[in-house]
Design a protein that fits this description.
The chain has seven helices and 15 strands. The protein has two domains: 324 residues, monomeric porin ompg (Porin); 106 residues, no CATH class. The longest helix is centred in the last third of the chain and has 15 residues. It has a 14-stranded antiparallel barrel with strand order 1-2-3-4-5-6-7-8-9-10-11-12-13-15. The protein is mainly beta.
């Protein structure tokens, strides 16, 4: 049904013309019953901002305050926190009976602790027939009504249980040759008491100011009021045997006509790739039923919805379709930390050493664990001897015995620590070649052993070292 085909007396059957009358709020209404509607919506402009977006949520009765989906500028500025992964979406909707066209571009990028999103929406009603103050029709003087809405949302993700978002809106409304501009702010929050199942959302929209459409001075605060609204919603996502489903319920207060609406809907997935949706906006002026469906073939998804509105005695379909590309992985701006697990047999045993004094003599009176590098050991156990103590041990033994005879028999030394002219050990050869010495696989402390083994500890019998060597 086209507005051009109707006389002025059937204006109520043309949604586009009804929108114009509501927006301008000028003169007496020539249509019976329309004056009461105008009285409630007086001085409220930008009413095309109330056109629902996202066919996923439209199919569920436009209940989307807490549903993980798109449409943050209309449902909840914190919705990108529930998306989980970045996406880019293109939409187009229309109402042929009212010559309404409304494309939308939207993208959102959630990160680990914050998110950002942007959208561009426009809605236009074409072919509006002009009349004069006396109601006389001039079919040769048609004009259009267009609203352009740019939105930017940013928010903070506190955890997988809570997130908040703030949305800045820039709006231009054009009616024939008249133009008005507006700036507004919206805010929202989502909470997940049961992550992955239960989500609660709260949002408020369009606290702002605008310029007058009939004044070219662009004086802020002189224009029409924004269509403020508030939403409270809850969503539940679960499976019934092998069938997944989502249910959502919102309570919406629309300030333009002081109306409380209750959008509700459900989505059923008989298989993972196919979604079927049904819903209704209870207490809405014109909508009777909402239907929708979707097909997901990662990374692309397609969705469409139909709304059946009834205006007076006219019932028409209003449709909306969308194509969305979703990234497979979540984006992280920081460097990922990878944990490296070292096998126990390869772990290095490092004993703290006293590096404050560069003296070659170690303080043997220090207690174990005081940072001096001296530790207690059992006789014959060389796995935990500190390198500083081992380097000082030969000098201490020489001062005590004073003879080369104190050197232990060669057969008691490790193979790679044999003294004499037989050549450098494996560790010394590696050091000469500027390559790290090979680490034994069965002893995690061998990398700290010196090239020359110190004399064995004195026996506990109390005999002097000279008596033992004799």
């Amino acid at each position: 049904m086209n507005c051009r085909a109707h006389t002025h007396t059937s204006l109520a059957a043309c949604p586009g013309a009804v929108f114009i009358v509501l927006a301008m709020a000028l003169g007496a209404s020539p249509t019976p019953g329309l004056a009461a509607v105008r009285a409630n919506a007086a001085n409220v402009g930008f009413q095309l901002l109330e056109e629902p977006v996202n066919p996923v949520l439209i199919g569920m009765g436009s209940a989307g305050t807490a549903v993980p989906s798109r449409g943050f500028a209309y449902y909840n500025p914190a919705l990108p926190a529930l998306a989980g992964r970045p996406y880019v979406s293109l939409e187009y909707g229309g109402h042929p009976a009212g010559d309404l066209r409304s494309p939308l571009f939207e993208t959102a990028w959630p990160f680990q602790k914050w998110f950002i999103g942007a959208s561009a929406f426009t809605a236009a009603v074409d072919g509006i027939i002009s009349t004069d103050w006396f109601g006389r029709i001039n079919e040769n003087a048609e004009f259009s009504w267009q609203t352009t809405h740019l939105a930017l949302t940013v928010g903070r993700i506190r955890s997988n249980r809570f997130a908040i978002g703030v949305c800045l809106n820039g709006v231009q409304e054009r009616l024939a040759e008249y133009v008005s501009y507006g700036l507004s702010a919206s805010a929202g929050a989502v909470a997940s008491p049961l992550p992955g199942k239960l989500t609660i959302g709260l949002s408020a929209f369009h606290l702002g100011t605008a310029t007058s459409m009939l004044d070219t001075a662009l004086d802020w605060g002189e224009g029409a009021r924004f269509p403020k609204s508030g939403r409270l919603g809850v969503a539940w996502i679960d499976t019934l045997k092998t069938i997944g489903y989502s249910a959502a319920l919102d309570i919406v207060f629309r300030n333009a006509d002081k109306r409380i609406m209750v959008p509700a809907g459900i989505e059923i997935r008989p298989i993972e790739q196919v979604a079927l949706r049904i819903g209704k906006r209870f207490n809405h002026d014109t909508e009777i039923l909402n239907l929708g469906a979707g097909l997901d073939i990662a990374p692309l998804s397609g969705d469409f919805s139909f709304v059946i509105p009834k205006l007076v005695d006219d019932v028409e379909l209003k449709y909306r379709v969308a194509v969305t590309y979703t990234l497979k992985k979540k984006i992280s701006l920081g460097r990922d930390r990878q944990e490296v697990t070292v096998p126990e047999t390869e772990a290095l045993v490092v004993t703290p050493a006293d590096t404050a004094d560069d003296s070659d003599t170690a303080d043997t009176s220090a207690a174990p664990g005081d940072g001096s590098g001296i530790v207690e050991q059992e006789p014959g156990d060389s796995s935990q001897i500190d390198s500083t103590a081992l380097e000082a041990a030969p000098d201490a033994a020489a001062d005590t015995a004073g003879t080369p005879a104190d050197e232990p028999p060669a057969d008691t030394l490790p193979e790679d620590a044999q003294p004499g002219p037989a050549g450098p050990s494996k560790g010394a050869q590696a050091e000469h070649n500027n390559t790290p010495a090979p680490l034994p696989e069965d002893n995690p402390g061998d990398d700290a052993q010196p090239l020359t083994e110190p004399p064995p500890a004195k026996p506990e019998s109390g005999n002097s070292e000279s008596d033992t060597t004799d």
